[in-house]
Write a structure and sequence with these properties.
Layout (H helix, E strand, L loop, with lengths): L1 H27 L4 E4 L11 E4 L11 H12 L4 E4 L23 E3 L15 E6 L6 H12 L7 E4 L9 E4 L2 E4 L4 H9 L1 E6 L3 H10 L2 E4 L6 H12 L34 H4 L4
Parallel strand pairs: 1-2, 2-3, 3-4, 5-6, 5-9, 6-8, 9-10
Antiparallel strand pairs: 7-8
């Protein structure tokens, strides 16, 4: 039902994107397009690439439909670049980015992350990073702050609320920020022993790049996050649980999991960009 309700808005957005791209191609003499999950950002006259980790789009009982619709959009592009390893035990997206019954012009370009790994002295025992839609973000924030009252370690708590000014509140052993810039978050991640967050794919790629140990709590109703958290839990990489079930003592389980690893992925960029 949500898919049907959103369809008119989605189609209008695609139409607007196509119109903007037409203008850009004419005025800027563009020779190629790389679209980061933007359905309408392509042009029939020049090579266009679509970036996504979702060759399958999980939507419960309608996964077959949402996946088919997404694959139809991908097929309109010359190539699809998947930010993950090829099929194997090291891949991060699992069934999302690897399918047997759908073989378009897919190229695996390895996980992507804006962060770098630094050998910094540990400042925090736990970094909490919140994100996602309301009211679930607020619900998890309140639950975690309540649970952390009995936690002895040093905590950095990032609410994930973007406001005009950054605010910081010190509450006993917890440093609470409304938000952090990318650079600040990069440092905080490198200074933290472990992370507690949602299980979005961008976060997963960051943790792999920084080789972090993490506890994952998927956003309720988001099938992709639920799938990824179950995948890494079953593979012994990161523990997870449903939002309502979390208790602070569960963080002790992290020591029994391997954590994420940064497996090197060699990509020939000259060959990759030869499309253009």
């Amino acid at each position: 039902m949500k898919l049907l309700r959103d369809s008119p808005h989605l189609l209008k957005t695609i139409k607007r994107e196509r119109k903007v791209v037409e203008s850009l191609v004419e005025t800027k003499h563009i020779s190629g397009i790389i679209s980061d999950n933007r359905f309408g950002v392509r042009h029939n006259a020049i090579p266009s690439v679509f970036i996504t980790h979702q060759l399958r789009v999980l939507s419960g009982g309608t996964t077959w439909l949402s996946s088919k619709l997404h694959q139809n959009i991908i097929s309109k592009f010359e190539e699809c670049w998947v930010p993950d390893h090829r099929m194997g035990t090291n891949n991060l997206s699992g069934d999302l980015g690897h399918t047997e019954n759908y073989q378009p012009s897919v190229k695996y370009i390895g996980p992507l992350s804006r962060f770098k790994k630094f050998n910094l002295q540990k400042k925090y025992d736990l970094l909490v990073v919140l994100s996602g839609p309301e009211p679930q973000r607020t619900y998890l924030q309140e639950k975690l702050l309540n649970e952390l009252q009995s936690y002895d370690g040093k905590v950095c708590f990032v609410k994930g609320i973007i406001e005009a000014e950054q605010l910081k509140v010190e509450k006993e052993n917890i440093s609470i920020y409304n938000f952090m810039t990318s650079q600040e978050l990069e440092i905080a991640l490198n200074e933290s022993e472990m992370v507690l967050s949602r299980s979005g794919y961008t976060s997963i790629m960051d943790y792999a790049k920084l080789e972090k140990k993490a506890f994952l709590i998927p956003t309720p109703g988001q099938f992709e996050q639920e799938y990824l958290s179950e995948k890494f839990s079953s593979e012994g990489i990161a523990p997870s649980c449903k939002q309502d079930a979390f208790e602070i003592k569960m963080l002790n389980d992290i020591k029994d999991y391997s954590g994420f690893n940064n497996f090197q992925y060699e990509i020939n960029y000259k060959k990759l960009f030869s499309l253009f």
